[in-house]
Amino acid sequence: MISMTGYAKKVFKIKNTSFFIIIRSLNSNKGLDVSIKTPRYLLDLEADIKKILTTKLVRGKIDIKLSELSANESVDLNEKKVRSYIKILKKISPESDPTQLLNAAISLPDVFSSKNFNMTAALKKDFLIIIDGVVSEIVKYREKEGRQMAKSIKGYINNILIKSKSLVKLERQRTKIKKQKILNQVKSISKDVDYNPGRLELEMIYYFEKHDITEERVRLKYHCDFFLQILKAEKIMGRKLNFLSQEILREINTIGSKANHFEIQKIVVEMKEDIDKTKEQLQNIL
Questions:
Q1: Buried-most residue among 44, 105, 183, 202 (CB within 10 A)?
Q2: How far is Cα 83 from Cα 109, in angstroms, rounded to an integer?
């Protein structure tokens, strides 16, 4: 099990220039949601950073901040390139407003450069190696937190299994009491009302089958066992366990609606509490 939450930071130096990087990872239902903030002269790194994140982090809301630590960080704008880009863009879209063309031109990565730092292919490779290492720290953080969450979730599911076993005895008691109550009611009116004993027996069988929770208990146990099996065997399991938790809740709700028995209802409430805690934890699972 791997959490989607993580945090890592690093201060490093490349070609006598100091940089720092901070990566935060949070849970997300959108797959991989990435936000990267870098100095303009490092915009060319963004595509490669996204490739690293897609490969290693898979899902989550990822915020990356990469900055130069120099107190006198300054950036040069290559005006010649900007004019060239505006000229090209104007040919492509002659109706566009000049302000729009300028904004489009200065958003391109190679129009800015640092006075203190000149990017080369070799230096770009050094950057990516360091960033890859920081992302690996996030992965370790996620795995550590995931192991802790797995213990909690396993405990919740085991609680449901234990409580569902106690339903067997309570179900027998409930059926016995209900059956006796119906027989007493029949005896009390049998002198005044004619009835077919065979038909009465069939109606009673139908009634008890309709309110029987054996099938729900069996399915609940199967879902919980399957849940624990996935928890043990798989690494990326969030979506699958989310679906299973819905099925577990469905069986618990059905037991509650059929039972009409105080002690069984009490156990149902406790099981619902355990599955709600499980679902809450699963929101943060990869």
A1: 105
A2: 14
pLDDT of res. 38: 87
Instruction: For the chain, list the domains and their CATH numbers.
Output: 6-72+119-144 (3.30.230.10), 75-114 (no CATH), 146-282 (no CATH)
Residue 21 region, left (φ>0) first, then alpha (ψ -120 to 50), else beta? beta
283 and 234 Cβ atoms separated by less than 8 Å: no
Place of tokens 């929101």: 283
**In whole angstroms, how far apart are CA 185 and each of 178, 189, 205?**
11, 7, 16
Flag whether pLDDT at 168 surpasses 90. no
Question: Using CA atoms, how far apart are residues 113 and 115, in angstroms rounded to an integer?
Answer: 7
Q: What is the pLDDT of residue 196?
A: 67
> What ranges make up the beta strands (E) of 27-170?
32-37, 60-68, 75-77, 112-114
Return the number of other C-beta atoms located less than 10 Å from residue 178's C-beta. 16
Structure tokens at 284: 């943060």
Q: H-helix or E-strand containing 3?
A: none
Measured N-to-C along each axis, helices 79-92 and 98-106 cross at an angle, to the nearest 10 degrees, of 130
Phi, psi (rounded to 5 degrees) for 231: -55, -35
Q: Which residue has the tokens 């010649």?
A: 80
* pTM (two decimals): 0.72
Q: How many degrees, rounded to 5, is the angle at CA 132 between CA 239 and CA 47?
A: 80
Question: With 70 as the cut, is the pLDDT of residue 163 above it?
Answer: yes
CA 281-231-4 angle, 5° bins: 45
Q: Do 245 and 227 meet the contact criterion of CB atoms below 8 Å apart?
A: yes
Residue 36 sits at the vertex; the CA angle it makes with 67 and 115, to the nearest 5 degrees, is 35
The answer to whether the CB of 216 falls within 8 A of the CB of 259 is: no
Predicted confidence at residue 112, as pLDDT, reads 66
